[in-house]
Each structure stands twice: as structure tokens, then as C-alpha cells.
């Protein structure tokens, strides 16, 4: 029997549920760090939803295989739409039934915003972690995001002011990648780690991580690498494979190609080492461009999407920017010039071996330009850190805790909505 001054809490308060939904590997990594930080505030909490191995290492219970959400491009999503809609309906039903303290959608906006909107209408609190690229794709989407999320957690400092213009609560929590790279990088330790000579030119080649990306990009990227090798005596080429499937694909493609002087070093992972060791990086557009920027390495960016996806985007006039690579977008947003182009971009039909090689050779041959790019990248790194101290995951957790505490104090029952 309990002592008179001890009040037994309901089971839901003893072990509150925090729901997290991540749709791909980058979201899984963010989710793992976030769960670890939230546990310091809610040590008895149960974490469940959709996530991968990093989240599961933190004791997360994944109700579905995260790979079911890892799709890319219009054509791929349309093909799997019935299955995705069924999964989303089941997930929403379960979330409403289990009444978590908060539902946190990490990235994957096409899936997560729909889930968040439905559960928010049912009275649950929602957070969207990683703002969609409203500065590049239709700013009016901010209203839709605000209808889905009680709070948006932003990785880039220029995002909260855009949301504020629409009356939406958004917080800059810092970019987790900015925590992983020093402000001034040193290529010597990375070259030693990869057993590369210290006095030769090095090119890192990253043609994407998804199978669909490799199908479209590996050919022109490897062709460009051969052209650069032919023009730069002594060049070493390093190709880090993003995962085991990418490694197998790249091995097959290299085996089919000519066995000439290029002979790149194929790595299982270790993308950061490859970037840090390089003088120049040739890579696919995406998060890797931000990593190369934080490594302070001049780069050439190329990309192709499926012709259907490209035609739809152009037809609907979905893009509101004439640059695609994150370093270029950040340079303009952070005041380095409204027309700044730090990184050459070769998109769609321009993404050919010849054009990639020409842009890459230009960087190798212009040391003054490389130095200016490195200085600009250091400025952008500082902007991504902002005035925040500590790690991005801690700031994200603090913003969520603040939201929950505020909601709790405003609730008539004093217990919040969960």
C-alpha cells in the first residue's frame, strides 16, 4: 500500500510515448541524436514510430521498415503511392490511438507533413524537424507546413525569418554537420589515413548514394574522372561508396571500364576522409555538397533526375532559384552576394563527362580561386553554427521540450494535450 503522501501516476505518465518518424538514412542519424538528447529530459520515455538502426540503438521501437519510405523523385513515388497511402493511414490511426506527447516528423516532407496534419487535427502536438527547402521550392508551402506542425526546427539560419513572415513558429537549431567538421581543415591526417601521398593532386568523386542516382550519374562522373586523370599527371582518384549496394555497383562499373592509368581507389564508406584528403571534389547535388563545403574543399556539382521528374518540375515552375547546390544557396542567403556562385553546377543535359572534367580541371589549375572558395566556405560554416553552443541535437531537443512545457502550462488540465 502506498504512503499517504505518494500519488501513483497513471502508466501513460510513468512512461510517456514520444513518436518519431524518419524516412531515410540522414533522418535516422538526426533521429538517433535527437532521441539521445530527449532521454536526458524524459528518462522514462518510450520512443516509437518509424526509424532505422541509429534510432534503434537508442532503444527506439520501429513499427515499420524505414526503407518503405526511402523513395526519390516523382516517378518513384507515384509507382508506390497506394502502398504509401495505406501505410500512412495505418500509422495515423495508431498514433491517434496511442496519444504520444508529441509526434516528430524528421524530413521526408511528402510523407510526414500529411501524417502531422492529420494527428494535429486530432489534438496531438507536432514538430517537423528539417524544414523543406521553401527558399528554393515555392515559399507558399510554408502555410501548409504551419498547418501541419506546431513548431518547425530549421537547420539553416535563413529559414525562421521566412516562416515568421507567414506567422509560423520556427526555430534555428543549428546544422548537425557543422558540429562534425573543424572550422579550419587539414588534409594531411586524412591522406595518411587513406595512405595517399602528401604531394600529389587528389580528386574525390561522389556520384550519389541511391541506386537511381548511380544509374544516371556514375557513367558521366567516371568518364570525367578519366579525362581529368589524363590531363593531370600523378592524379589520385578516391571514390567513397555510400553503402554496400553502391560499392557493388561501382565495382561492376569500374570493371567494365578501361583499365588505364586512372585506377581509382574505391572505399567502403569514409566519405569525410575522402573529401578532407582531396584538393577538389566532384559530386552529386545533395547533402554531400554541404559536407564538402564544411570540409572546405572546392567542388564541381553535377546532377540528373529522371526525364519525367525534370519535365514535371519545369512544367509546374516549382523551382524559385537558379542555383541548386547548397553552398550556392547559402552564399546568397548569408550575404555573400545575391548572384553568388561559389560552386560550378552542371545539371541534367549539362551533366556530361566532358563538361564535368572541364570544370574540375579549371579548379585544379587556379589556386587563387580555390583559396577564395575556401575562405567563403569558412564564413558559411560559421553561419551554420550561428551563436549556438553545443550540438544541434541538444538544441533540437530543447526546442521540443520548450514546446511541450508551454503547451502543458496553457492546457486547462495542466497536463497538456498528450
UniProtKB/TrEMBL annotation:
Pfam families from the UniProt entry: LpxB
EC number annotated for this UniProt entry: 2.4.1.182
Keywords noted in UniProt: Glycosyltransferase, Lipid A biosynthesis, Lipid biosynthesis, Lipid metabolism, Transferase
Coiled coil: none
Root EC class: transferase
InterPro entries: Glyco_trans_19
Listed SUPFAM superfamilies: UDP-Glycosyltransferase/glycogen phosphorylase (SSF53756)
Record pathway: Bacterial outer membrane biogenesis; LPS lipid A biosynthesis
Reaction catalyzed: a lipid X + a UDP-2-N,3-O-bis[(3R)-3-hydroxyacyl]-alpha-D-glucosamine = a lipid A disaccharide + UDP + H(+)
One GO MF term: lipid-A-disaccharide synthase activity
PANTHER family per record: LIPID-A-DISACCHARIDE SYNTHASE (PTHR30372), LIPID-A-DISACCHARIDE SYNTHASE, MITOCHONDRIAL-RELATED (PTHR30372:SF4)
NCBIfam families linked: lpxB
Physiological role: Condensation of UDP-2,3-diacylglucosamine and 2,3-diacylglucosamine-1-phosphate to form lipid A disaccharide, a precursor of lipid A, a phosphorylated glycolipid that anchors the lipopolysaccharide to the outer membrane of the cell.
Family: Belongs to the LpxB family.
The protein's name: Lipid-A-disaccharide synthase
Organism of this sequence: Dyella caseinilytica
Amino acid at each position: 500500500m502506498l504512503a499517504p503522501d505518494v500519488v501513483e501516476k497513471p502508466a501513460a505518465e510513468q512512461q510517456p510515448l514520444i513518436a518519431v518518424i524518419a524516412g531515410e538514412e540522414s533522418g535516422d542519424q538526426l533521429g538517433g541524436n535527437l532521441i539521445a538528447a530527449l532521454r536526458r529530459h524524459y528518462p522514462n520515455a518510450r520512443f516509437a514510430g518509424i526509424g532505422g538502426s541509429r534510432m534503434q540503438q537508442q532503444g527506439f521501437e520501429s513499427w515499420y521498415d524505414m526503407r518503405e519510405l526511402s523513395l526519390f523523385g516523382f516517378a518513384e513515388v507515384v509507382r508506390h503511392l497506394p502502398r504509401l497511402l495505406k501505410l500512412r493511414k495505418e500509422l495515423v490511426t495508431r498514433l491517434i490511438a496511442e496519444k504520444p506527447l508529441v509526434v516528430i516528423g524528421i524530413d521526408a516532407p511528402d510523407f510526414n507533413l500529411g501524417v502531422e496534419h492529420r494527428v494535429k487535427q486530432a489534438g496531438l502536438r507536432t514538430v517537423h524537424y528539417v524544414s523543406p527547402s521553401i527558399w528554393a521550392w515555392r515559399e507558399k508551402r510554408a502555410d501548409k507546413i504551419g498547418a501541419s506542425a506546431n513548431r518547425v526546427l530549421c537547420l539553416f539560419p535563413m529559414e525562421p525569418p521566412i516562416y515568421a513572415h507567414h506567422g509560423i513558429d520556427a526555430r534555428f537549431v543549428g546544422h548537425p554537420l557543422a558540429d562534425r567538421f573543424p572550422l579550419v581543415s587539414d588534409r594531411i591526417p586524412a591522406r595518411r589515413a587513406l595512405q595517399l601521398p602528401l604531394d600529389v593532386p587528389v580528386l574525390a568523386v561522389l556520384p550519389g548514394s541511391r541506386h537511381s542516382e548511380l544509374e544516371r550519374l556514375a557513367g558521366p562522373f567516371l568518364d570525367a574522372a578519366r579525362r581529368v586523370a589524363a590531363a593531370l599527371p600523378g592524379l589520385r582518384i578516391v571514390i567513397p561508396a555510400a553503402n554496400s549496394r553502391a560499392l557493388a555497383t561501382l565495382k561492376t562499373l569500374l570493371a567494365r571500364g578501361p583499365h588505364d592509368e586512372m585506377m581509382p581507389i574505391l572505399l567502403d564508406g569514409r566519405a569525410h576522409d575522402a573529401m578532407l584528403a582531396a584538393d577538389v571534389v566532384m559530386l552529386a547535388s545533395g547533402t554531400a555538397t554541404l559536407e564538402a563545403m564544411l570540409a572546405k574543399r572546392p567542388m564541381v556539382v553535377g546532377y540528373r533526375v529522371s526525364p519525367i521528374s525534370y519535365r514535371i518540375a519545369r512544367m509546374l515552375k516549382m523551382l524559385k532559384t537558379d542555383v541548386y547546390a547548397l553552398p550556392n544557396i547559402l552564399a546568397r542567403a548569408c550575404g555573400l552576394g545575391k548572384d553568388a556562385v561559389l560552386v560550378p553546377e552542371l545539371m541534367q543535359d549539362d551533366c556530361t563527362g566532358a563538361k564535368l572534367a572541364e570544370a574540375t580541371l579549371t579548379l585544379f589549375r587556379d589556386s587563387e580561386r580555390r583559396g577564395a572558395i575556401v575562405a567563403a566556405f569558412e564564413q558559411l560554416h560559421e553561419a551554420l553554427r550561428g551563436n549556438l553552443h553545443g550540438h544541434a541535437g541538444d538544441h533540437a531537443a530543447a526546442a521540443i521540450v520548450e514546446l511541450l512545457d508551454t503547451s502543458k502550462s496553457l492546457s486547462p488540465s495542466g497536463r497538456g494535450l498528450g
